[in-house]
Amino acid sequence: MSSAMPLTPMAAKSSLEEMLEALKQRDQKPKDVPPALPVRPTLRGRLPSLRRSLPLNFQTETNTAECLLKNPKKWVQNKDGQAWKEDKEAVFKSSIFGSKRFAKADQPEESPYDKMSKLDSYEEKSEDVDGSESPVDPLLLGALSEEKLRLDHTNNYVLKKKLQVWCRLPDDEWGLGEIQSISGNNANILLPEGRALTVLVENLLPSNPQVLDGVDDLIQLSYLNEPSVLHSLKCRYVHDIVYTKAGPVLVAINPFKEVPLYGDDYIAAYREKTTDNPHVYAIADSAFNGMMRDGVNQSIIISGESGAGKTETAKIAMQYLAALGGGSGIEYELLQTNPILEAFGNAKTLRNDNSSRFGKLIDIHFSTSARICGAKIQTFLLEKSRVVQRAKGERSYHVFYQLCAGAPASLREKLNLKAANNYEYLKQSDCLIIDNVDDALRFHKLTDALDIVRVSKEDQESVFAMLAAVLWLGNIEYLVIDNENHVEVISSEAVTNVAKLMGCKVPDLMLTLSTHKIQAGNDVVIQKLTLPQAISTRDALAKSIYSSLFDCLVEQINRSLEVGKLRTGRFISILDIYGFESYDKNSFEQFCINYANERLQQHFNRHLFKLEQEEYIQDGIDWTKVEFVDNNECLNLFEKKPLGLLSLLDEELTFPKATDLTLANKLKQHLIGNHCFKGEREGAFRICHCAGEVLYETNGFLEKNGDPLHSDSIQLLLSCNCQLPQLCAARLLNQSQNPVSPFWRLGSVESQKHSVATKFKGQLFNLMQRLEGTTPHFIRCIKPNSKQLPGIYENDLVLQQLRCCGVLEVVRISRSGYPSRMTHQQFAERYGFLLLEDVQFQDPLSVSVAILQQFNILPEMYQVGYTKLFFRTGQIAALEDIRNHTMQAILWIQRRYRGLQSRHNFQELKKGATALQSCIRGWLARKKSFNLKSLAMSKLNNERINMEPNRNFQEMQASVPAEVEMQILKSEAELRQKLVENAALHQQLQQYKARLSEYEAKMKSMEELWQKQITSLQMSLAAAKKSVAANDRVNQPGRLDALPIHHSYDSESTMSTEAQTQEGTPKRQHQTSDTGLARDSVDKRNAVGRLAKEFEQQKQAFEDDARNLVEVKQSGSSTNPFEDLRKLKSHFAAWKKEYKVQLRETNIALRKFGNFEKKKPHRRWWGCSRKQNK
Prior knowledge:
By secondary structure, the chain is an alpha+beta fold. The strands form nine sheets. Strands 11-12-26-13-22-16-17 form a seven-stranded mixed beta sheet, sandwiched between helices. Strands 9-8-7-6-10 form a five-stranded antiparallel beta sheet, with helices on one face. The longest helix has 87 residues, at 949-1035. Residues 25-51, 103-136, 1051-1083 are annotated as: Disordered. Belongs to the TRAFAC class myosin-kinesin ATPase superfamily. Myosin family. Plant myosin class VIII subfamily.
């Protein structure tokens, strides 16, 4: 739309109606027609014809001087003396507030995006530029001039208004001060503590207004520079607000303590959208909603240096997603993978007590009902060298120390485990413990987590056995046997334990660790190893076992978390990967890590610029799509074939005599022309990464890249009886195309495909392709101090990390267009009161346009979108300055008015107070007068009373003794009554004591009587038992001499007279059969037994009752024990009588039975005599 469009028809319509009509017209037009924009004021809503336009295929860089020094041949001087690049590259020199360079970006020769369909936003490309010189584009010159004018305007504005600025202090720290005066190129700065400082104008940086201190999003800063960003982050950090947005990136500063920002309440707040503060929960919620709403897979990319809190941030994101998609139960298993991966993949370093020494990508799959239905974990580049070697003050992987400290006695005995200080692999770094960390407790948590992810106890013991084998491998020692430094393994406890734990033979193990077999034609030659070769072979075996064990464990976890039939293809990936690393000594691990960060940085730039441009286009502002690629030159240095770093590194592996020094020389020879590469002395080289220069030492590059493991070691693992060594060998065979080669460096070119760097490159390309198909969300973790203590904020360290992870560049890229933006409603509410006319009933868009017109905001400094206003750098700060001045004026007027009103109110109060005081004083005077009159009357009455003192005294003397005497008599009567009552009570007490003594005597006599009677009954019962026993002896065969014994059971019994005749012979009984006699005998014995049992029971019952009576008597209970004693006595007499009757009857029956038995033998004897006579 042109700015010259007639405005007459639109005069009667509001801006909101115009915008709606424009949207309607846009929808009716063909799709290839650009969208119609809302009608804007003439020359206000559109950029001028010579506005700054970003060229296609250009990128921004920040250090122009460095680029000039790198390649001065590509720069020439124009007639004005300004530097211009030959191939249309432009340089913006923006005095003190920053600089930008738009450089043509070359696509790398090999890219993970080649196999993917190109995005529309990256398809627009300009025509190729040939190598010949061409004149500078006039449009570009106009853009340069405009940019310089804009920056000069900002600079002059800050200096003219004498605003606060940042200046570099003598101690190299940034200080905030206020400009007092400017003299030439010098400025006098007043610091907050009152100290004055003179600095050069070109060394000043503008500061933001206080309203922008500690903003949620760094893009909101009007002036973007390093001290402003550091100050904003610090303002939030000191208040325990550790999350800040930097455009689409979340910056997370490690607090090194627990902060109240997590838990169910916060999860509910972000889930219900009741808060929008920057947080990991907000990033995870945005990813979850985007996946469910749009059906597009999401990714959360977490990076940062060691100790910045990447692992904890990843766990926080997983916890939020588990809370959103929980319910299936698998989310608990997913969370329990963290202690397992930390134990086997994390270690203590000099910078972090729990540093992840591997990268991981966790895919969390969701069902159609938004529930977690499975997960998959992929790992990258485990630092195997840490198993056998590390720096002083560092530890190996946590699991070794946890096993030595927390293994139960049975497992310790089975594995022959010892303390950690007994193993060479662990004690070499002089660091065995971590402060405030209990390794034994962590081991128990590890075993619990393994149980939860369904790793059986048998498999756990196998894993621990392999870990113990790795530890014992480090204790294997060698003995030099000749002058050529050849060695043999010393037979020791370590060798025996390794062979036992791995399930191999001791001679095979010793031979594998001291010799190599070489195939020479049809013959096999055994070559003895030197001491360095033998140690390298031993360490390579230990590293391979641990690496394969780690991979097998991850596979087992993935099987436990495997997605079943609920797979929908929807997932959220969480990438927890190492950040940019730069140490005093950087080796092969840092080389691969920083290469991965270069790839991630390019992925980050692509998506960052894409999202920024989409917002511009969706809001309908003028914008030219820009393809931004900033680190292709560094990526080409790594990936270019055949002269890239990775290609040359793999090529050097094919030479048997290659060393780390020959590798360094080859790199210098072939890469000296690359601007990102610098050769150094003693086998070192530098690489200019996007985050800074890093010095690498080639020592160990070839060995770590080749990852040597001789075929003899693989054959040893295959020959083991245990399952895990065999699985390790199978994995090693699958990873190599030529696994049986006897050489650890193969001569064929195909072996290059299997170097560590090449495999890592392949993993990285697959990762990039996977992430490219997702919507990314970036989290950059920052470590605030090197001491790992809370409350400490080191500006230099934070700034270094911001540069390394590209946060400052992110904000610069986001601010390259219109970094400050507000919705029409927000803008109208904040600045609407500045308008001179009444806008109460106008729509927000009309109010916003009126504000822009009133304050003469230049058209090129803003654009009006459908829903937002977009401003260039500094415009919000200028409006904020006007707003602050207006607010100060309003406050001054209010202050003056309040003062006038207060003085008027004071005068009114003073008049009222004076009238009130007059009334009170009159009342007090009247009251005082009344009191004086009362006092005079009282004195007069007193005088009258004093005239009759004697009469009053006599009356008092007569009345007082009478009253006292009556009280005394009454007291004496009460005393006598009390004494009588006490005497009666004492007499009653004596009676009770006498009755108690009498009761005790009666109870004692009754006890003696009962004891005698019980003794008599016991004697009678004993006599009955003896009688029964005698009858039994008579009935036994062959006992003819047995005679019954007659006893008198009781003195009162008369059973003896009834059982015998006068002659003493037994009465005759009717003859019965032998069977009947036996039955009668059994019945009689049973009758006696029942009597004895009844006697014992009754005896016990009476003893218990008597004991209870005694206890009741002693306890002083209110019940009458003598009545109970009488009842018990009558009951005992009745039972005794009845029991005597039973005894008498039983005795008669026994006597009859005894007489019959005495007669029966005689009959048999006579019978026998008759037979003999016959």
